[in-house]
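seq as requested:
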Amino acid sequence: MAEQQRVEQEPQPFAHLSAPNAALYRDVLRAFARAKERFIVHLRPEDVAAELRRESDEQLGQALEQLVGWGNLRTDADTGRVTTVEDFHRKRFLFQLTAAGHAAEEAIAFYEEAIGRRGSLQSVALADIADQLEALTALGGEADPDPVKVHLLLLSLAERFSSLADNAQAFMASLRRAIDFSDGDVEGFVAYKERLIDYINRFIADLANSGARIAALLDGLESRGHERLLVLAARREAADAVPEGADAAQALARAEAAALDTWRNRWRGLRDWFVSAGAGRPSQARLLRQAAVTAIKQLIDTVGLLNERRAGRSDRSADFRTLARWFAEAPDEEAMHRLWRVAFGLTSARHLTVTAETLSAWDEQDAGVPWSQAPPVRISPQLRRTGSYERRGKPNRVQDRSEARRMLREQAEREAAETAAARARLRTGGPTLLSELDVLDPRAFRLFLALLGDALAARGPGETEVKAVTGDGSMEVRLSVVADGGEVSVRTEDGVLTGPEHIIEITDLMESS
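struct tokens:
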């Protein structure tokens, strides 16, 4: 009956997920999936029961029949153990996964793996990508590169890059969930916070350094003609394509064109990941770095909030509980209303419309006139009564703000250029004494003070050397105290900054993007 039902209707291999006894169905299907991994195709009911470590009872038999009805399993007559006529007439079946059931199991396994996956920030993958690009650059310089080596390198590059991108996305998503649900395990969250921040900081630094190398390799490879390497890989893949149609040459050309389009799309994704296309289209590496820096700030804020709660300091929930107690202790309803207005400020609305006549009357008055003698503000009774007011005459024209947007865009680009110039001005290129710094312009000096403040804030008591990254992840500063260095001066256009001598090294992490 179940077999007939399966033939008559379309398979529903996911129906068991929302059915009663879904846990039993999942256990049975997992048993078949594990058996398939051991190259066992057919299972008898008693084999399934042994796999599940339970009795081969009526409930298991009904579950198998129901899975046959949904199309997850198929049955074949079990004639291998027939020894008598009674055995021949008794129903005995072998069960195996159908194509639809096997596909459903793979889809469910992939979903469960993706949901439970924490991901990682793969610094090693960055170095591997750079090494593979260097090897491709060497092949690109040859007059007749080996297609096999080119194809294998591109396949390895695509696999490593896909792993890097997928793991980074999964890690940031899992980090977001960890921050959102940090209340579940406060002690554990606080304990691993420091290690997690160090882990993210190391990846940010590796991404900045390796990202610059990868971007330069991509530019160099494209200047040598990366397209012909993609053509070689596409041609080698097309050789394995299944022939279609009567014309073999046309089928091969179509397969080669499809493979080449796929490789071009992969190359474009790789370039977009590491190379920015102007201020409006930052690279994915830069966006990932910004997201990582934001995550660090959120981690620090979350830990601070948790510490406040553990220390018994006031938070919003405690404030609301206190307010509720005040409401409960209020002597009468009038006091409750006063407390409500003070706490929430939800008083009745007072609508105000200043007309052109009112503005004209105000302009004619001297600024020293007391407010009690100033012209009154007249409002429409309809506005107070209905909450809406229609001004007579033509409606105001929609203002064209394209010029203002252009000016804001130019101002933002100018400020970005000035900030970049200030970063370049402060970049030391190696350890440098504070006393050896040249005269700093105002913008560079403000940036220098911010860097100095970040480094000094990160230095603990008794430490003589410190390394810090700015809050936006754009620069790294190393600061070391010079023993008996005396007092030095840093000249700026606004004055002179004096302080103890230090060795400073400033690195521009945005150079890679």
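Confidence is low (pLDDT under 50) at residues 1-7.
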